[in-house]
Amino acid sequence: MARRGLRAWFSRAGVMLLALCCVVLVRYMLSCSPRGDTGPLPFPRHKSPTGQEVDQAVLQEREGHQEDSATSLKRQTAQLKEAVQERGGQLKSRQGPSNATVAMRLDQALPPRTLADLSQFLLSQVDKAEVHRGVRLPSEYAAMPFESFTLQKVYQLETGLTRHPEEKPVRKDKQDDLEEVIELGLETLNRPKDNDSTKQRVFSNTDFVEGIYRTERDKGTLYELTFKGDKNYEFKRIVLFRPFGPIIKVKNENLNTAQTLVNIIVPLAKRASKFQQFMQNFRSAHFKNFTFIHLNEEFSRGKGLEIGARVWKGSNVVLFFCDVDIYFTAEFLTTCRLNTEPGKKVFYPVLFSQYNPSLIYGHQDSIPPLEQQLVVKKETGFWRDFGFGMTCQYHSDFINIGGFDLGIKGWGGEDVHLYRKYLRSNLMVVRSPARGLFHLWHEKFCPDELSPEQYKMCLQSKALNEASHGQLGMLVFRKEIAAHHRKKKASAKKT
Question: I need a surface site. Which of 184, 204, 358, 438 has the fewest CB within 10 A?
């Protein structure tokens, strides 16, 4: 009897234990089952988050998947970019006026059809921009100047009261942009030539001479980079264009200036001392031959330049129209040669105008030699971007454009007239700051016979050429500064 009861109890305990195992098994399976991306949980899980914690966990999981996908896509994009660059280097020159070669760096991989459409669009942007030929402009106000740059500095025209005529150090975003185009220029120069087993020269940053760039707001940015060649009169030029997208290589050309003569024409009237100083600079630039043309008539700058240009009967030289109070370096004459091309390009450099040395250096005895004064700094001068008298162009272009307006008498006006002629032609006008071209300071006189309004305007013009805004301000407050110094000395003696 007792044995039968004990057996029944064991049977009930076994059933209960089996039921408990089943419950535990079900709970375990539910807690270990995979979660869905959406929808509420059917049962609460053992030690599992609920509500906002569940949503956060789901988001973190999705972000992990997205990061993995992004990493994979970046790896595939890098491989495709390499393939596209290899194909880009094999493309032939396109038929048409641009004759440009595409060497694009794509930021993302594109299907072949889309890539072809993009290439076609980018090349059309090059054709629309002022890259291969000049664009006719209505006036000088529509002309867009270049900014020039070296490895260390950018020479900028829009300075205002706070910015400097030279930017050093260069702003980070601008520096990254210019470093990228210089790097691409070097890659282009160092690319192996087809079917050429000879050892090629390897170009580096030290071979970079200078560059210019400007941005057309509706088209893109044009870059012209100049590198040293194998000889001191040989240069390499790389022309690039960024149409608000991948950079396009437009030109890779060799330049030889050995036979490019520069004929400097200077009109002069009653300025013997300045002429003597000019001739010293003339000799230091390794010029030896000159011709003196005497005119016994009323002075006209335009007529003097016109006669000087037309008297030349030799080869097609570069004409550099200059003034007697201008200082130029031999490097500037090289820039003059590189930025002119017969039938295609004329150069209108923006010169650096010197402030009054007596005001800059404080005392006549402390003024350094002239060569040490000619430094592009905010304290020493400004870019004279409102003048167009200094210009370089080929003799043939000057004759074809019609020369100066000889109806203009005296000094001034003829330079703007010629500049407008070039802007309205099919020639490209290159206007950029020239760090080797200086306008030397000289006294400006305001005649008594001027009207009160004219006299005021004359004094305003004179003030612009005397000193910087800050330096003129120090002159205005010199009495306050002196009084402050006296107070400081008196208080020092008491202590």
Answer: 204
